[in-house]
Task: inverse folding
């Protein structure tokens, strides 16, 4: 999954060289949006208004963006060249559609649409006066995997006249106007409480309603990708979703039917008791979060620390020594081990948060004692895969047959997968923190189910097992190759340990790893002579682990900061905002893989630094590696279970814009400009 996002970042580098709508696009023949500028009348009266339509037709499988694009993309930029005295209003857009990709919500148009712009013609112009109208448009057009910036240069020539409108043109504009949201003449009410936004919108009980959905125009108030529940309660509609900020008015568009919507303005207030969404609202949210967690867990199987363990289990099935029943029992035991650990970690997170601790996913990696133990465990697994020794099976596991070993392997896979997160996991686990306990635990169980799905499929689908290669000498070689990603995982953990505990802590961890390797080498030599692993060796390994955890201590953390960045504090943020400076604040941790990918690919790049410098954007970095409680509470205020978290504070804005968990240089450069 990470390789996929790196590919997306690379593709989006085309932002540096925009394609022209008049020639071939940067990726394939363009333009991918065919746009024509249409005037409702070519002969407007002096002192009147004339409506222009941007008749836009997306190419198949491509889409354009609404005025608020959502978690990704950017809206079209219009640069008018108009006769003296003629002015153009802001474009008004028809109701968009939703497109959810990798946990990111996009507000898009996949079928023909027409934003409308009103031109004001000054009074006193003589009939026959020419009014040349020119427009340069810069816009983004995307498929589900590729985005291309394009430019269109449009023109229409008007002449001051009698304002007559041809019948066919009037019919065309009437159809376009019906898709424009109608203003609601009553104010709605917005209540934000416990991370949930509830919007009560006046709406007659007998009025038709279909496919209702709220599209926010105001940024930074609600989570775009969060599920929404819309319920009818008398003469009002109540919308419930996840909040990212409170205390500010919100503007938006409420879809009430196909190509029909209302322009809604909601002011902060209280939604009266009994007007809150019914209990099925959180149930729907829990189901969506569960599905996201399953998908996120499935993606974890390709991570370097999990893939070797999954592959070893697959190889055990490839040997063909298990009958159908035994294969299924092992698959269920492996899944039970994975889900049990995920439930245990989830329950511990919820319990600690209930006690006032601001912890999130992978919270245990904030403690260098846990990191050093994980480092030793990973080194041991890598040496086992390399063939240095064989893992002895405890007697109680032998008594349980292969089921006991499968359960232990699943538990191990789940535990060492915790440093990883991704778009689906971030949204799902963030939702779990605002759900009831039972629903939240179900989300964590869904994460375990997704992690266990590949092996479950192999255990229960014989045809999939038959696709596995036949047993042979290659299996031993492949096992040795699998040690490489485990060594990479150990290297990453050593780096995290050095960041948390300094040079002394890293030296201690490497020394302990060397001691573990020596003990395992001696035990492996014993096994080669037909002897057992050795009780003394096992005791020494336990002693090394206990001593390492007892002796390692945290060192003052140093945030991995982009050039020119400063350490985050709420006081520093307030000072910068008081100066009127734009601020980009990001929250990271050394053990967060997603954070490091974003920093390397988007944040700490020459293009981003140059864009921030040109626009005087201040950069603040919050390092959550050691689980700083103050940072944890700040992150929690933005309804996130952990890092990464990216915020952009525009000058004068009351609330920050919460950026996607996957960043691109184009997103950051667009913010700066």
Result:
């Amino acid at each position: 999954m990470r390789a996929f996002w790196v590919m997306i970042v690379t593709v989006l580098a085309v932002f540096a060289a925009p394609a022209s709508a008049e020639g071939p696009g940067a990726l394939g023949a363009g333009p991918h949006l065919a746009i024509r500028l249409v005037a409702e009348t070519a002969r407007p009266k002096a002192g009147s208004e004339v409506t222009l339509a941007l008749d836009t037709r997306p190419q198949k499988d491509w889409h354009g963006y609404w005025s608020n694009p959502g978690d990704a993309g950017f809206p079209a930029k219009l640069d008018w060249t108009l006769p003296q005295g003629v002015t153009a209003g802001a474009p008004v857009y028809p109701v968009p559609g939703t497109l959810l990709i990798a946990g990111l919500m996009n507000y898009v148009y996949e079928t023909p649409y027409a934003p409308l712009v009103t031109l004001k013609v000054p009074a006193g112009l003589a009939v026959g006066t020419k009014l040349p109208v020119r427009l340069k448009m810069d816009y983004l057009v995307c498929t589900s995997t590729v985005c291309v910036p394009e430019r269109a240069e449009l023109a229409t020539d008007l002449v001051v006249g009698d304002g007559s409108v041809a019948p066919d043109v009037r019919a065309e504009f009437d159809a376009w106007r019906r898709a424009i949201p109608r203003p609601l003449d009553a104010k709605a009410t917005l209540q934000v409480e416990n991370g949930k936004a509830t919007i009560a919108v006046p709406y007659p009980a007998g009025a038709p309603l279909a496919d209702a959905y709220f599209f926010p125009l105001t940024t930074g108030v609600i989570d775009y990708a969060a599920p929404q529940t819309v319920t009818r309660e008398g003469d009002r509609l109540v919308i419930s979703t996840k909040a990212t900020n409170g205390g500010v008015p919100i503007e938006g568009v409420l879809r009430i039917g196909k190509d029909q919507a209302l322009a809604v303005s909601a002011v902060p207030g209280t939604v009266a008791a009994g007007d809150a969404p019914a209990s099925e609202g959180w149930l729907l949210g829990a189901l969506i979060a569960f599905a996201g967690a399953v998908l996120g867990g499935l993606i974890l199987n390709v991570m370097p620390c999990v893939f070797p363990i999954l592959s070893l289990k697959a190889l055990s099935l490839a040997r063909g020594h298990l009958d159908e029943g035994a294969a299924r029992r092992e698959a269920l035991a492996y899944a039970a081990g994975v889900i049990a650990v995920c439930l245990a970690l989830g329950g511990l997170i919820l319990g600690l948060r209930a006690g006032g601790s601001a912890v999130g996913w992978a919270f245990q990696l904030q403690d260098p004692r846990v990191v050093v133990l994980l480092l030793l465990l990973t080194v041991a697994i890598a040496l086992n895969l390399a063939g240095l020794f064989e893992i002895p099976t405890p007697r109680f596991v032998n008594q349980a047959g292969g089921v006991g070993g499968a359960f232990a392997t699943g538990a191990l896979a789940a535990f060492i997968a915790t440093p990883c997160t991704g778009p689906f996991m971030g949204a799902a686990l963030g939702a779990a923190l605002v759900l009831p306990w039972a629903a939240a635990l179900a989300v964590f169980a869904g994460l375990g189910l997704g992690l266990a799905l590949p092996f479950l499929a192999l255990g229960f689908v014989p045809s999939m097992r038959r696709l596995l290669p036949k047993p042979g000498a290659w299996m031993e070689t492949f096992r040795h190759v699998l040690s490489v990603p485990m060594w990479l995982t150990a290297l990453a953990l050593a780096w995290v340990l050095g960041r948390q505990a300094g040079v002394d802590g890293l030296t201690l961890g490497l020394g302990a790893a060397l001691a573990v390797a020596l003990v395992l080498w001696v035990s492996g030599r014993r096994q080669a002579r037909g002897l057992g692993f050795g009780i003394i060796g096992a005791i020494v390994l336990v002693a090394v682990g206990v001593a390492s955890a007892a002796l390692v201590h945290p060192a003052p953390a140093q945030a991995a900061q982009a050039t020119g960045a400063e350490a985050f504090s709420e006081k520093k943020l307030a000072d910068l905002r008081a100066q009127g400076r734009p601020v980009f604040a990001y929250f990271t941790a050394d053990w967060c893989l997603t954070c490091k990918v974003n920093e390397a690919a988007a944040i700490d790049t020459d293009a981003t630094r140059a864009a921030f410098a040109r626009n005087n954007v201040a950069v603040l970095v919050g390092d959550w590696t050691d689980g700083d409680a103050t940072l944890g509470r700040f992150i929690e205020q933005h309804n996130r279970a952990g890092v990464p978290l990216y915020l952009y504070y525009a000058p004068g804005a009351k609330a920050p814009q919460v950026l996607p968990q996957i960043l691109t240089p184009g997103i950051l450069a667009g913010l700066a400009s």
User: Anything to note?
Assistant: The radius of gyration is 29 Å.
